[in-house]
Amino acid sequence: MAKARRARRQIAAEIADHGTAERAQHGELVARETLTAGLIGKRVKHECRLDWYWDKGSIIDRQHEAGTRFRCDWQFAATAATVVGAYGPRIARPTGRGEFTDTQLAARRRMAGAIARLGRDLSAVVVDVCCFDNWASGRLPALRDGLTILADHYGLARVDGGPMPPRSRSRRDERHSTAIKSK
Fold first, then answer.
1. H-only helix segments in 47-170
2. Residue 176 belongs to what H/E stretch?
3. What is the pLDDT of residues 151-171, one digit of tens each?
4. Measured distance CA(55)–CA(64) in Å, rounded
């Protein structure tokens, strides 16, 4: 019984994905579950700056999720269609270089809406950190504010369980309504 268990573990260790030595040089590796029972793989802990800020407690889960969604939309909207060679006859309609798929256009629309919601100042910081993977440096409070606005824009649930702000209102309208209430 023990020999069979040892043999299964050895086989599992041989097919487990622990990455190369070069991969481990680029950051700390953390264990992750795989679809195969008993196999544990590893991945890089900090894939981007957002992961680093989240791991260090500089941003909360909701902000991290909003930044990750923004990053995925950015990558998908900016990715050009790939050209794949085929040896068989071409059945699909010809597509030009400047044409985008419907899903890419939808991602571009989501990006435009999110950037418009952020405004000029905050969008610069959020795009810089989330999309271009630069450090926020002294702009961390602005990054937090921008990611919170993005989380509201995407409709992510608040941690405190409070009501979500209406999506149709802009930041300028919110400032105006708070100025009226304070009078």
1. 49-55, 61-78, 102-126, 140-154
2. helix 171-182
3. 999 999 887 655 444 443 344
4. 10
